[in-house]
Amino acid sequence: SAALLQKHIIRHQAESRPFLLVIEDLLWADPTTLEWVQMLVEEGPSHGVFLLLTARPHFTAEWTRRSWVLVMDLPPLASRAAADLLRQTAGDVELPPALVDYIVRETGGNPLYVHELTRAVLESGDWQQMPGGENNPDLSWMKIPATLKESLAARVDHLGPAKALLQLCSVLGREFDYEQLRAVSGTENEPALKKELNSIVQAELLFRRGSSANPSYTFKHILIQETAYNSLLKSKRKELHLRTAHIIEKDYPEIAQAQPELLAWHFGEAGESATAATFWARAARLSLLAFANLEAISQARDGLAVVSSLPASAERIAQEIPLQSMLGSGLLATRGYTAPEVREAFTRARDLCEQAGDAPQLFQVVVGLWMYYQISANYQRALELSQTLVRIADASGEPGKYLQAHYCLGYTLYYQAEYQSARKELELALQSEQQGTDYRAQSASGDDTRAHVRIVLAHLHWHLGYTRKALAFMDDALALARVEGNPFGIAFVTFNAAWFHVVRQDANTALPLARAAVEMAHANGYSFFRPLAEFMQAWSEGRERKSGLLPSDEQTVLGQQSFAGQHQQTGALLGKSFQYFSIAADLVALGYGEQAEQNLLQAWKHVEETGERFMAPENHRLQGRIRLQQGQPEAALGCFRTARAQARQSGSAALELRATLDLADALVNASQADEALQLLQDSLSRIAEPEHSIETRLAGQLLKKLKKQLQ
């Protein structure tokens, strides 16, 4: 994202020498700048960057509470300092002491007020007529503005003929260049325009920068712009906005193309709501493509506010649908898949699509809703929506929709442990890929769905016993995401790669991926990914070195429990059963059987309520381990046999072998080594690609031991 790129640039600069960065008026900053500042602050005090930020008192940000952030309330200027500023502003003019005391007292130490009131008094010239000499304290006869707003208004009025030009400048925005001003003014007397513009600069209401041919101008303070703008009659204001919009659209196509939000604002202020909505939609789309999700959310909401003023019509529906869809996409990336606002935006868009009939956005809107219900673990609703997507895609004949639809259906079927059906759908998606197709266009998250297809295929092939293919699919997904360069896509694939290796119980491979996922979630504001990435990091860091499988201590479990709870609080319930199974496995290994059973009860409740069965055999396997600790070997054997049978029935060769390992160990202890050997060989034969499989390595070790024992 733009914010992330800026952060890396600053960090690079700070590597060679300390870096001072000053940002004023943070209250007026755009969302990307605020996101960038947050990233820099959250990095902590150890990166050689000193930030000095200014804002008004009512500015709030969560990062201001960090221990390394010092918040200072700037008090008003002391009387002596205010008087010094006044004299500096007056320059060679020496104001009477009574007038100086009055201005210092009335402005209350506000530097801007001191400066502007002094300028207003100087420009009026009334002070030169003070009766009784400069020591006369009676100033009631003078027309001295009573507030900062009045002071600024007086200064604008003192411009005389140039006031109208300053008002026009205020319509153009905080910054503008001369050529834009000249075009919008429509003047035929350019020398007069330049003369008036120069008088405004001399009055220190505008700053001039840049080349003499086409200099740029900036209002000294946003309050000056607001004062000039508010002094315009509404009818005149609308007229100027409309003229500005038409000139930018006609004469400055590069600005219209790069900054559609500027045209949206001008058309909106001109009362051209339908045209404004069109440009807000363009702006939101550009922001999403640039990964500026916060801007996209703000622009989509501005567009929806404009649309709400339009009369009910087919045109209004057509304009609202893409805005709701883009709002949902922006919220999905920043708030997470399961945020209520995501569901509301996509549901509203779907309802509008149904009203409109054959709306082109329907497919992507349904994808957004599918994501919401999938991550909420409402697999029945997700299945219905994915089947709807397949019907739409098949009828359309569009390869992008075809891949997206079959991916959605395959992903839902995978979590329901319908492995062969899921494989069929995902292979259809994989085989349908065509060069030149934009596989981001139909994704509600805006990243390349081809990487998502490979992620689920990796998980699926691990279950089916094709470990080499599974690893290859995950490597392909990571490579594809990195080539595409979408920050959300890279975070999504990295997160899922860590998840994949935790499921495989490969802590060494999972750990760097989990750490990277945590950093990406933190840096990009992807709140959805962070707790579960931290869960996987806690699991990976908490393995004891000898086996790489067993937990090192209780802190490992406490970390997993905390992060899993945080993740579930967001409403994200996909994979909840696996989280409980993982925690239960560590509790069993540490000898806390009773606590482990409580986690298994929670996991099984989730399985039964949602149909999330992709790791269901783990329940009986772990129950068997608990029974062994309780001195119930026969009950344990029954649990292991049930786990093995469930895994075989679902088609998960990996989970079958995992259950068979525990069953074989228990059989050996029950003096049934022959059966243990037979079952182990049977389950091993179902692993088509034994390389790089943790379970296969352990099974090989046990098999060697059994054969030696039975000789």
Structure description:
The chain is mostly helical and 711 residues long. The chain is built from 34 helices and 5 strands. It has helices at residues 2-16, 31-42, 79-90, 97-107, 111-124, 148-157, 163-172, 178-185, 190-202, 222-230, 234-251, 253-258, 260-269, 273-289, 293-307, 314-335, 340-356, 362-375, 379-396, 399-415, 419-431, 449-464, 467-484, 487-503, 507-524, 529-541, 554-569, 576-589, 593-610, 617-629, 633-650, 653-669, 673-684, 694-710, and strands at residues 19-23, 49-53, 175-177, 206-209, 216-219. The protein has a 3-stranded antiparallel sheet. Strands 1-2 form a two-stranded parallel sheet. A hairpin with a 6-residue loop joins strand 4 and strand 5 (216-219). It is elongated and about 120 Å long. The model has no long low-confidence stretch (mean pLDDT 90).
Descriptors:
three-stranded antiparallel sheet; 5 strands; two-stranded parallel sheet; mainly alpha; 34 helices; elongated; 711 residues
